[in-house]
Every structure is written in C-alpha cells, then in structure tokens.
Design goal:
The protein is α/β, with parallel strands linked by helices. The protein is 40% helix and 17% strand. It folds into two domains: 2-298, Nitrilase/N-carbamoyl-D-aminoacid amidohydrolase; 321-638, 3-Layer(aba) Sandwich (Rossmann fold), CATH 3.40.50.
C-alpha cells in the first residue's frame, strides 16, 4: 500500500452448488492465501457462498438462511486477517431477494451491495428469483446480520481512513455490460478501484468481448478494475463457467487468468496514486462529491507492498515487440506530416539540417526525406550539412556522408575549425583550455552556419535535438538548442533507437548498413578531440548518465508527477541486476538538478510535433517557471540515502 500500490486479487472458488459449508471452506482458504500474500482487496466470484447456478433453489429459505450463517462465519474468520474481502450471496430484504456483494473487513460486514442490472435474456433468468438494487429506494435500508445492522444499497464508496486515493466501489457482473454501468457513478464519486464479482458463462467470442469491456471501462473511467469470474464448479446443466479473471489499470492489463486456467489467486498491484494523478491532469474528468453516495471508512495497515507487476525499463517503448514497429511507423508519420505542413506553409525552398553521424540527426534526416516525398518534391531540396571540427571522428563524418548519399539528398561539408579558432581569437579564448566555452563555440558556430545557409537557400533549419536532451538541458543555448522546426522534440533517446532500427529492417542493404553502424556509435556531442586511436573520447552517458535511466525518470516525472523517492523505488525494481541502488540514486539526483536548472532552455524552444503522451513544449504540455527550486525534490531523495 506504500506509495499508493494497492495489492488486489481475484480469488477462485471451487463451487459446490447449494452447499454453503463446502463453499465457506473454499472461501476461507482464499482469504488465508490472500492474507499471507499481503493482499489489500480480495474479490471473489458472484454468489460464491451458494453458487450462482442454484436456480429456483433461491426460493428456499433453508438455502438463504444457510448463506447468512456462512456470511457470519466468513466475517468472523477475517477478524485477524489483512484483506478487505468482497464475497457474494443472496440476501432477502422486505420479501424481495437481492444478489448481493458483501464487503467484509476485520470481522465486520461493512455493507451489502445489490446487483443493479439483472439479465433475463438468452441463458439468464435472474429476474425470476432476484430484484434489482434500484428497487431499494430507502437511503437507510439495512439487514440484520449477527445482531448488527448492515447497510444495504448500491451507492457506497469504501474509503481508506488514511490513504485518500484508495477508494473502491462494487458492481456485479451484468452491471458492467449495461449502457450506464454503476462504475461510472462510483468513479465520479471518487472510487479509484472497481471490484466486480461475476458469473459470466463461457461461449465462443465472449472471452475477447469480456476483455474489451473491462479494458475500455478501466481506461474510460481511469480506474483499476478487478474482474473475478465464476469457475467450472458451477452447474454445467446449461452453462459452463471458465474462471476468467482480469485485472486492469487504466486500460492496461496487469494480470489475467485465461479461460479454464488454474489459479487460486490472481493478484497484481494497482497504483492508485497514478490513477489520481491522471484524473488530476484530465480537467474534463468529473470527480465531485455526490451526496447520494455514502462513504464507508475502513482502516487497513499501510504496508510496504512487495511489487510483482512488470515495470517496463523503457516506459516510452511498447513492452510488446509486435507493437514496436507499429509505434515507430506512427511516430514517423506524425513527424513527417508535421514537417510537411511547416515546409508548405512557409514556402521553404529547402530544408537545411546538420548531420553529425549520430542518432538524432539521422532520425531527423529520415523524417525530412519522408516529408519531401509526401510533398512530391525532390530530396535534393534537403541540404544535409556536415560541419567537422575538433572532435569529429572519421566514423561519424563518414556515416553522415554515406547516410546522405543513400537518401539521395544534397550533401555539403563545411569545416568550421578555422571559424571557431578565429572566434577564439576574437573573444580571447585559449584553444588549449577545454572548457564549456571551447565546446559551445563549436555548437553555436554550427547553428550560425545552418541558419545563414537556410537564409541563402530560402529554406528552414530542421532541429535534431530529442526529448531526453531537452529534459537534461544537454544542448547549447542558442546553439543546437535552436532551429525553425524541431522534429525530434518529443521523441526520447530510448525511442529514437527503436525508430531507426525499424527503418533499417526495411531499408536496402547500403542504407541498412549505415543505420546499424549509427546505432552502434556511442552517443557524443564530439566537441572534444578524439583519442589517440581516432575514436570518440567524449561519451555523453559517461557525463550525464545512462539515457535509459534518465528516460525512466523523465516518464514518471512528466506523466504522473511522482516523488523522486517513488521513482527511485520503481527504478530499483525495474533495473534490479542492471544498476546498483547507489548508481540509480546518483543519476536520479543529477536528473532532478538538471531538470529544474535547465527549464530556461525549454521555455523558448522551437515548434515541434507532439508524438507521445509526454513532451516538454511550453505550448503543448509542460509549463514550469525557469527559476523554480528543486530543494523539495532533493530533500525527498535524501530520505533514500
């Protein structure tokens, strides 16, 4: 539960139809397992105390009374157990029978929630025995169980006493399939989690539709969704149940027990802080106090929940390999269409781009070539400029020239060594002092060359800097920081690699060879002289840290506003075995300091297309004062030392 991680579980119950004693034993076993696993919220199948398929046996007072006795026994069993339990049974109220979910914690039945929508079509006959929860009009309806008055109704929000974002509600099976499911109102009333005890029979095609419903509901309502389905123990007279359990968080599948899979407890950790952050950002999301809902408070010890869910080391990159190529193609389309419009709107006669033989300029050149193709223009209207100086290596210079030749663009080499040395004389800079002036003079000279060349050719300068560099401020102000359109401005470094690799896979042999060598080249600004062997001596990741770590930090900072301590916890878990805790903490401190101190470069960054959910454009997404202090964030990290 610490850091907002709520461990939820869908528990399988091997039902014996109409045998409440046998079912109670099964339910106790699941509660015991959940307790041992540190589960916060355990959801069990619909009508698990009696079985869903009892039919007209639900008219039997003997069965109904036995179910209530079983509920008492289960409730007492939870007295010293950790989980909140959602177990279901038939409950009689004022001569009517209701299909109810009982919410139980620490020996108390917190409430009984009746099912709202009752199916009476095809193989379902629930309206024959049950009434809808909407028929309970009294706000103070209750049922006496074990001498206690238990609230009965379908407008309850269960709220943790200390963790504000841990709120859940219950809807039952068919409720999810309705036009306006109860979960809509529950989430509007503040619930971040929805529990669904279900008995959905298995027929051809239903598995996919069930998955679609739960995924889309959790995405649309920005919530966690625990769907617990009845299993093969139910009567097979007319239907078969498959124990298909699903756990989703905001549209993402966290865990699944596929139909007829054998699992006692399907569990995952849902991050309710992340859900709350998403709702906070989405101003169109309605979440206001609704006086028709009653909040029921429960207290559960806040434990340091052990994480078992998969956390992607590269959150900007799709975890599914089959989606990576599709994502890469979409990004290329966004980038090239954005540039296409800019070229057409400005009437630019040329697109001028500095090519270094590195990743970013490679991607920018690929995008520009696409844009020209889309406009039906010659790629010769692209002027790719190599500007070697003190740190340029034969490898990168050669790759820049080969890439330009493979793409059929106009290539020019303009050596800036003399210009930079002359500038050193003008400002009194000792060429032997390899300081920031030594480096930045080269970057600014390159930008001047590109800008002036664009003026001369009637074109615009295409920026090459990526999102990761913007986050770290790893760009020379009014140097490579500046352009007329930055096509890579919302593409992080980790994703740049995948996009280039995607292009290489379908490229002709010559282009593929160049692209693969560019991928293998260390990331470097090449502003310091090469080593004795002519290789790159200045490696960016040795100076500012691994880009994969910085992209991880950036993602959780931008998307969810997580604290550094929580990001550190996630990074330790995701990168276990790859980096030591000390290494992660070191580079996280660097990230936080640079992210805050370099905002001024982002406040005036050039236009560029947004391609993903996180970007640093001051117009498209990120608005932060350039002089904001990072002291609070650094203090949070000190707790990790």
């Amino acid at each position: 539960m610490k850091d907002g991680f709520i461990k939820v579980a869908a528990g399988s119950v091997d039902i014996t139809v109409a045998d409440t004693a046998a079912n109670t034993r099964e339910i106790k076993d699941r509660i015991l397992e959940a307790d041992g696993a540190g589960v916060n919220l355990l959801v069990l199948p619909e009508l698990c105390i009696t079985g869903y398929t009892c039919g007209d046996l639900f008219y039997s007072d003997l069965l109904l009374e036995s179910a209530l006795e079983a509920l008492k026994e289960i409730s007492r069993f939870t007295t010293d157990k950790y989980p909140v339990v959602v177990a279901s049974l038939p409950v009689k109220y004022r001569y009517k029978l209701f299909n109810c979910a009982a919410v139980i914690h620490r020996g108390s039945i917190l409430a009984l929630i009746p099912k709202t929508y009752l199916p009476a079509y095809s193989e379902f006959y629930e309206k024959r025995q049950f009434s809808s929860g909407d028929e309970i009009v009294s706000e103070k309806a209750s049922v006496i169980v074990d001498g206690s008055e238990i609230p009965l109704g379908n407008r309850f929000v269960f709220r943790h006493s200390r963790l504000e974002s841990y709120r859940f509600g219950v809807e039952i099976c068919e409720d999810l399939w309705a036009q306006s499911p109860p979960s809509e109102a529950l989430c509007k009333a503040g619930c971040t989690l929805i529990a669904n005890p279900s008995a959905s029979d298995e027929v051809i095609g239903k598995e996919g539709y069930r998955r679609l419903l739960t995924a889309s509901t959790s995405a649309r309502l920005i919530c966690g969704y625990i769907y617990c389905n009845a299993g093969p123990g139910e009567s097979t007279q007319d239907m078969v149940f498959s124990q298909h359990h699903l756990i989703y968080e905001n549209g993402s599948l966290l865990a699944e027990n596929k139909p007829f899979g054998k699992v006692n407890l399907l569990s995952a950790e849902i991050d309710v802080e992340r859900i709350a952050s998403e709702r906070h950002k989405m101003t169109s999301y309605q979440s206001v106090k609704d006086d028709t809902f009653t909040e029921i408070e429960f207290d559960q010890e806040i434990r340091d929940t052990e994480l078992t869910i998969k956390i992607n080391r590269n959150p900007f990159v799709p975890p599914d390999d089959s989606l990576i190529n599709e994502r890469a193609e979409t990004i290329l389309q966004i980038q090239s269409n954005g540039l296409k419009k800019r070229l057409r709107h400005t009437g630019a006669k040329a697109a001028v781009i500095g090519v270094s033989g590195g990743l970013d300029s490679c991607l920018a050149l690929l995008v520009t070539a696409r844009a020209m193709d889309m406009l039906g223009r010659s790629r010769k209207d692209i002027i790719a400029v190599s500007m070697p100086c003190f740190g340029t290596t034969r490898r990168t210079k050669g790759n820049a020239e080969k890439l330009s030749a493979c793409l059929g663009v106009t290539f020019r080499e303009i050596n800036i060594t003399k210009s930079v040395n002359r500038h050193f004389e003008d400002i009194g800079q000792d060429p032997g002092v390899r300081d920031v002036t030594y480096e930045n003079c080269q970057a600014r000279e390159r930008t001047q060359v590109l800008m002036d060349l664009a003026n001369k050719e009637g074109g615009i300068v295409i920026g090459t800097g990526d999102l990761s560099e913007l986050a770290l401020g790893w760009a020379t102000y009014n140097g490579d920081h500046m352009s007329m359109y930055g096509v890579n401005s919302s593409v992080p470094k980790t994703l740049v690699r995948y996009i280039i690799r995607f292009v290489a896979e379908s490229a002709d042999d010559a282009l593929a060879v160049v692209l693969r060598d560019i991928l293998d080249t260390p990331v470097s600004p090449e502003l310091l002289p090469a080593d004795e062997s002519g290789n790159i001596s200045q490696k960016t990741e040795d100076i500012v840290g691994p880009y994969e770590l910085h992209d991880f930090f950036l993602y959780y900072t931008l998307r969810f506003g997580f604290s550094p301590s929580k990001i550190f916890r996630l990074a330790k878990y995701a990168y276990a075995g790859a980096y030591t805790d000390e290494t992660i903490l070191r580079w996280l401190r660097v990230f936080m300091k640079r992210f805050f101190s370099q905002q001024f470069k982002r406040s005036c960054m050039p236009d560029g297309p947004k391609v993903g959910s996180a970007t640093l454009s001051p117009r498209g997404d990120w608005r932060m004062p350039s002089d904001a202090s990072c002291a609070l964030w650094l203090r949070d990290l000190e707790k990790m030392s």
